Amino acid sequence: AQQPGTPLSDHEYHQFFKFLRVTIQASTACHLRELYGCKNSLIQRLDEYENHGVIPPGPICSELPGNPFFRNFCTFSLYRCIMKKYFLKV
């Protein structure tokens, strides 16, 4: 365990920036979704990529307490973007 206030180790920095890059990429995808909507071909390719080639048909259930149900994958993805819960899974 590191002492509070000391710099991260090389391994810890690698993990920190790896997470940061992934979060920035997720945020960028959300901005594209907000600009172009779910019917945009780029957004549909991203959704397909995220789901191993197929956009799941609705309804979508998640592990969220109090809000487990979404009409479709687009609604679920928009919720993740708005709430900045980029890595929330179905």
From TrEMBL:
It is found in: Cytoplasmic vesicle, Secretory vesicle, Acrosome. The keyword Phosphoprotein applies. It comes from the Eukaryota. Keywords: Cytoplasmic vesicle, Phosphoprotein, Signal. GO terms for cellular component: acrosomal vesicle; nucleus. Its main location: cytoplasm. Pfam families: PBP_sp32. Acrosomal protein that maintains proacrosin (pro-ACR) as an enzymatically inactive zymogen in the acrosome. Involved also in the acrosome formation. PANTHER family: ACROSIN-BINDING PROTEIN. This is Acrosin-binding protein. It comes from Polioptila caerulea.
